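Record copied across here:
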Amino acid sequence: MSVKDFTPAPWPRKLRSTHWYSGNSRDTIYHRGWLKNQGYPHDLFDGRPIIGILNTWSDLTPCNGHLRELAEKVKAGVWEAGGFPVEVPVFSASENTFRPTAMMFRNLAALAIEETIRGQPIDGAVLMVGCDKTTPSLMMAAASCDVPSIVVTGGPMLNGYFQGERVGSGTHLWKFSEMVKAGEMTQEEFLEAEQSMSRSSGTCNTMGTASSMASMAEALGMALSGNAAIPAVDSRRRVMAQLSGRRIVQMVKDDLKPSDILTKEAFENAIRTNGAIGGSTNAVIHMLALAGRVGIDLTLDDWDRCGRDVATIVNLMPSGKYLMEEFFYAGGLPVVLKRLGESGQLHKDALTVSGASIWDEVKDVVNHNEDVILPLEKALTQQGGIAVLRGNLAPKGAVLKPSAASEHLLKHKGRAVVFEDIDDYKAKINDEALDIDETCIMVLKNCGPKGYPGMAEVGNMGLPPKVLKKGITDMIRISDARMSGTAYGTVILHTSPEAAAGGPLAVVKDGDMIELDVESRRLHLDIPDEELAARLAAWKPTHDLPGSGYAWLHQSHVEGADTGADLDFLKGCRGNDVGKDSH
């Protein structure tokens, strides 16, 4: 929705929470009376907005470990604006600790948080997020319930340093690990470097998935301008939290909801932003799922259409050399959005949580470091958007991040070396007898939404030591998995349909020739159509369906990566039953 199309609701009026707390019936006295045991005065139940601070803090989610402190600043802002803040702990899917993968629990978190909002007296929500899956899961839940909501991210950690070199979260983990296998770094040095990787609170300091999704929230208009890049330990992060607490109260009064903000134009802004920042491929799957929650027709083709001609101008790891701390000092995401607007690649009238248009928020910002946020003519790549590949190997699409790939591999034909699943890969990859060289294409199967299960970040397969020792640092890798946004390389991901669902990837054999042409967006298995059809007809599933629990629910109902890997029964349920009184 554009700014001119939004009309604030009249105020005062009765809110959702009045169903619980207004009046003198037995039921309302029951609800009020119990909450008063926390020491709240009676006059707080006067119809003012009750703001749920949905907090993904957890000791086992290190990226979000500081959100308890940050929530206090949100509360202060809510009180200042005349609201009534209530902090609510919600499902926190930690990228660092959850097995088999945090992605398996993104949908469970979204479902649980949706019901947290739906079933409790919350007029507006502050989404306290940070770690990779917490941002999309809370936005998905808020979109389904469609109550006024604002995103507050925890912010990235400070730069890491090791032996005088910037150390990027995740990015250097992959780099150093490969160096150990190549004999270029000792195990002792690797352990020493570990101490340098995470030296403050916050999310990854690279343009990984956490920073990408924080940028997506801001580009969508779901967070205040400037929110994405402020370091976790910077005092300005606390100021942003307090201002967001103030703003959500007015959003409730105006009835400014996710459905007013999350329009097709907003998603197109975010897609172009992802290309400009060199954002994570994981943003593709999360944005598709979010769009499904609000009934927006967003497809992989939109990603290719909107992102193809966007230059990557943010010089951050894994595509570039700097980290989020420098990005913030340079001016952060507002500078990127201004550049997009100046080049005609931004829907300037898109509405944001501030009540202003996205262009009004950024038109006067200044770039303070043109080596971090590059001029267009010095972009890392002129076509930085996510490339969507299709062909007989990926009829429903696969994705590749050109800004993190090797240019000489973007058009290549090579012999397939196949790993049937991640265990098969681990068993073979270090074997000197493995028949593989740098011209081959590594193929990993059964790591998609159903296959792993949950679609783990294993697509950036480490190269075999025999190749690394030759000084080779990249090869083409194809899978139905995801990869960390902190990773790099010529890695083809999200291949759909996935192998566990009987997609063509399932029947690739060692020795098959595969062709990649990124410019033509082509991914082709070089066998006759008749042979491919015969292989697919003979294919049988290799994974048993779990007998019960969430694993059964997930594998029975999860959709493909090409539509966001959401649960099929959760799409298009926006606002159902929100605010109904059960008494």
Q: What stands out?
A: The chain is about 35% helix and 15% strand. Residues 17 and 120 are 8 Å apart (CA to CA). Confidence is low (pLDDT under 50) at residues 579-583.
